[in-house]
Amino acid sequence: MKIISNPLELKEYLKNNNKTVGFIPTMGALHEGHISLINRASEENELVVVSIFVNPTQFLKGEDLDNYPSREQADKKICSFAGVDVLFYPNADDIYTSDEVSVQAPNVRGYVLEGRSRPGHFSGVLTVVMKLLNIVSPTRAYFGKKDAQQLNLITLMVKQLFMSVEIVPVDTVREADGLALSSRNIYLNEYDRKEALKISASLHVCSRMVSKNILDTKEIIASMRETLYPLEIAYVEILNRNFEKIEQVEIGDSVILVEAIAGETRLLDNIWL
Ligand code: PAF
Asked: Residue 192: which region, alpha, beta or left (left: phi > 0; alpha: psi -120 to 50)?
């Protein structure tokens, strides 16, 4: 596995390779969820590139940028075992200067749900993803469905800015007890982790109701909120795949999203029905 930290060196290395390139942007602290993205990229492309970069512009003041889990050696081993061809491992000053052009998240879709409690977060995400996609020029880029709003906004950016990359959504990987994998799960103590299971349990409540043909979104959200009690809820929403509110679940076109806080850790989860 080749490890490169300089963006121009990586661009040069990948230039004229005449191979399909699958790209997985990450912030490190890699887990099975990332490995499933790498595996999918390996199946569908001739060359697999992973980036590890904890992007400062997507963290708000007071968030966990300085404490974000960092496991450089373990991450490099995971990438190498998983068959990654090139690992891009830049520093912040390889990516950003002091006076920057940036991507602005859309005023509505970028500032609802997670964007409401983290205003500006998605502008930071879109800016770094734009930079990374321009550096790697992949055929396909792989993103987890767990970060559904991020995935939706990146797909929108690629479409609206006429970019030439296919965005591939990949299913969420869960622990045996249902907890969606996240690099932030390591912040959970034993009690909070148990409480956090209410998030996937609430999504189960939703699928059970839908399987009984209860499709009214208000009724479903009320039952989900009961299941989540006493967790602090940031939002429970049922949207269509364009991220617009709906009154009835439409099978094949709905996303059910939850963000709740266990202890001090914000956790996201969702299912696509
Ligand atoms: O999902 C993530 O890990 C990050 O938001 C991403 C897409 C790598 C951008 O920093």
From this structure: alpha
